[in-house]
Design goal:
single chain; 62% strand; 126 residues; mainly beta; globular; five-stranded antiparallel sheet
Length: 126
């Protein structure tokens, strides 16, 4: 079993920063991808930012960012700690949503599965 635990959500003024973090724990052999989705009230869930692992020559990752957050959000990841962050800058009211961590995990008991955190609410006041 794998658990994802998010932290860092809350209320922030428009234009300000807010940082989220997500830690994965459990029967993890390796994580293929780890990142963030969000769902605003009355809207479909959308992918915000994702890291895709690269275990070829060295341990690293590539990044995909939603166009609406490019230039404002970054997604650092600490592969050794199974942790991903979402550094949100210049937040806007339209960034208000429930943010969920997602990970594509290869289990040490063999097998692969997709996991979700419980979500953390981000509210941006104008």
């Amino acid at each position: 079993q794998v658990h994802l635990v998010e932290s860092g959500g809350g209320l922030v003024q428009a234009g300000g920063p807010l940082n989220l973090s997500c830690v994965a724990s459990g029967n993890i052999y390796k994580i293929n991808a780890m990142g963030w989705y969000r769902q605003a009230s009355g809207k479909h869930r959308e992918r915000v930012a994702m890291t895709i692992s690269d275990y070829s020559a060295h341990i690293g990752y590539s990044i995909n960012l939603q166009e609406a957050v490019t230039g404002r959000f970054t997604i650092p990841r600490d592969i050794t700690k199974n942790t991903v962050y979402l550094q949100m800058n210049q937040v806007k009211p339209e960034d208000t949503a429930d943010y969920s961590c997602n990970a594509d995990v290869v289990l040490d008991t063999q097998g692969r599965n997709d996991y979700w955190g419980q979500g953390t609410q981000v509210t941006v006041s104008s």
